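User: Please predict structures.

Assistant: First:
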Amino acid sequence: LRRGLEAFVARGGGEGVSADPGAPEAVVEKLRWAVLGRQYDWAARTYLPEDAAPELPPELANLAFTVSSALPLPEGAEPRPFDAAICNIYHAARRPSDRLGGHRDDVEADTASPLVTVSLGLPCIFLLGGETREARPLPILLRAGTLLVMAGRARPPFH
């Protein structure tokens, strides 16, 4: 992951992060998120053209496809080739309350493909909510190495 993030920054990725090859720890400390593969414009809430970034590393694309293909998915949900990974980076040792705000992944043209998450590092509580922010979320403990697949009714809620 570190090599991938360093390469990402060296290629000019990581808005507002300077690539200082002498201090990779400083680069990683500044990162809050990185998108691997197809890029997303957070302000416009849309994906950029497919040729705007290098392909998603095949190891990640294959992992997501293999895991989602092995599961009994709900009717209408089907794995498709994965082309993007959003790496949320939490600095729990320095910022114990580090977290991502509740959101919905609802801008994809086709939401039938599952979302696959891979947890690395410290354990955390993942909150799977409902159709509105007012719905009481279901807490799920994720440990390093946990794979979570959200498909069917579990895909559109806040999380």
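Second:
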Amino acid sequence: GTPAFAEAAALGAACDYLSALGMDRIEEWEGQLARHLWQRLSEVPGIQIYGPTPEQHQGPRAPLCSFNIEGVHPNDLATLVDQESGVALRAGHHCAQPLHEALGVPSSARLSAHFYNTFEEIDLAVAAVKSAAAFLRTFSSTSASN
């Protein structure tokens, strides 16, 4: 087959870009994003965030959180957040079925950031999660009372 020349060139450009930014700077910024994301998500009523808090975690931590919100199915949440706000919220097993089984949950939602994201974008994403969860809870509380 044809060698992947374009992919090799792109990988080189990506490595140059990351090197110019500085991996230490990226790690520091992602740590700040992780702390901000955790703090903001922890404000959502009924949320269960899985894993240690950024303060409990030793070493670098990826700026992502897997979670469930009481009375809200992760798939419904992800769909509504995407459709209403354009925020990419993932729902499902996240290639971690054994972990979900150990946690006793069928699935979870996951919100992720990366070095190119900002605190403001996290705030907008969490606001979208809060809004969608509040809307979806009206249906779960209605069906529970019927």
